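Sequence in, structure out.
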Amino acid sequence: LQFLYFIVTSYTPNITENMRSSLSGMIPRRIGATRACSSVAEIAAMSPEEWTKSFKGATVDLAAMDVETITYNQSASRMRKLLKTGLLQHTDLHTNPERFFLAHRLLAAYAPKLGPGFWIRFTVHYNLCAGTILALGSDEQLKNLQTMQSDGLLGCFSLTEKLAGVSSGLVVNTTAVYNDADQTFTLNSPDEGAFKNWISQGLVADKTVVIADLRIKDKSYGPHAFLIDLRVDGRTVDGVCHGDMGQKTVGNDLDNAWIQFKNVTVPKSSLLNRYADITPSGDYQQKVDGVPVFHMIGQRLFTGRVAVAQAALEFRRSLFATTKQFADTKQCWSPSGPRQLSTVPQLRALFRENEANMTLLDNFVGLCEAQLCKVLRNNEMPSIKLVEAIAVAKVKCVEDSIRFVHRLQNEIGSYALMKGTGFEQTDFLTCCKFAEGDSRILMQKMARDLMKMYSKKPEAVKEKLPKEAAQCEKLAAMSEDDEGYSEALYSLADTIIERTTSTFLSKL
C-alpha cells in the first residue's frame, strides 16, 4: 500500500491535497511509529535511536505534501497531529533539549522538498510560543502547555511590527494598559506601524504570545509577554483584525499574517508573570532583581539561533547529497571517454571543500548546542562567551550555506533549473538569514561591542587581539558616511567570527 501510495501521488497529474489525505488514510501505520505513546513517561524513556525512529515515522508523510496546493488549514492540521502524538513535549526544551534540537534537524532535512513552511510552523510553535511560556510563565500558567499539547492547539508569536522589522531589534509599540478596576489589560495597536507583521501561523493559531509595552498608571514598563486566545473554536476573538501577507517565493503552505489589536480585553492572568507581576495594589513588581523581562524574552533567540544554524546545514547537506547522487550517475564527454559529472575537477573540488566546511560547522554548532543544553537544563542564563558563540554559529552556518549552495547551483549545470531538485527551495536559506536576528544586525553588534571595548581599554585589546585592534583603530578614525566604512565594519565582524570559531573548536 505504501508503494502504491508513492506511485499514485508521485505520477498522477493534478492530484489534490484532499486526494492525498484520503489515500494516506488508507495506509496502515506501523505499530510504534506514528501512534501516540501511552504516556509521557514512555516517550521520555525512549533511547535517542528509538525516539528518532518514532519521530521519523510520525513525519514520513510530510514528503508527500504538495506545498503548491495545500491550504493553510491542511498544513496546520498536520502540525496539530504531530503535536498530539506527544513525541516532542513542550517541556523538552528544558528537560530534554537535545531532543528539541534533533526534532528541528530531522524536519529541516525535508526542506529541499518542502521549502521552509512546515519547519517554520514547527519552530514558531515549539520555540517561540511554547518556549516563551515555558521561560516566563508561572507554574500555574505552564498548565496551558499541557492543554495545548493534548488538544492540538497551535500557537504563534506576535513580536515583529510593521515599523520594527528584523533590522530594528526589540522595538515594540503595541500597548497593554492595565485596568485596576477589573484587573484586565487592554491591548491596542495605536497605529498601522504597530500592527504585528509577518506573524507565522497567525491565520490558524489558537493562541498567541503577544509582546506589548506594559503600561500601569500612565507609566511604561517596556516589552512584556502576554498569552492570549487568538481563536476559540476556530473563530477569531473580538477586537483582533488580521490579513494575509500574500504570496511568497517559497513556503506558501505557511500562513504569514499581519495582526491588529483594537481594544482587546484580556484577564490579568494573561501576563506571563514568573519574573514580573502586578501587586494587589495595582503596582508593578519585578520579582527577580537584575533580570528584566525583555532579557528573558530574548532567551528564545539563543535556542532559535542554534536551531536555525542547524537547519541551514541540514538543508545544505540534503541538497548536496541529492545533487551528488545525480552527478555520480550523469555521464559527460571527455577526450578519454565518458566520465561521471562528479569527477569534473571543479565539481570534485567543490564537493570536497563543502565536506570539510560542513565537518567544521557541525562540530562548532554542536558544541554550542551542548553548552546551551546544560544552561537550559539548569534554567540559567548563558555566559557572554556562549551568547557570542551562538550568534557567530548562526551567521557562519547560514552565510557559508548560502555561499556553497550558490556555487553548487552555478557548477552543476541545467540540473539546477529543474523543478524537484531542491534548488527551487533555496530561499529557505534566505529565511534562515533573517530569522532569529538578521545576519547583518548580528555582525554589526559583534563589531560594535568590540569597538566599545577598544574605546575603553585599547591597550588590552591590542595585547589580546592585535588584528582586531588594528581594524578597530581604522574604524575609530572613520564616520558612518565615509566610503569604505561598511566594508571595514563587516571585515571586523568577519575577523571576530573566524577567531570565535577557532577558539571554540580548540576546546574539542
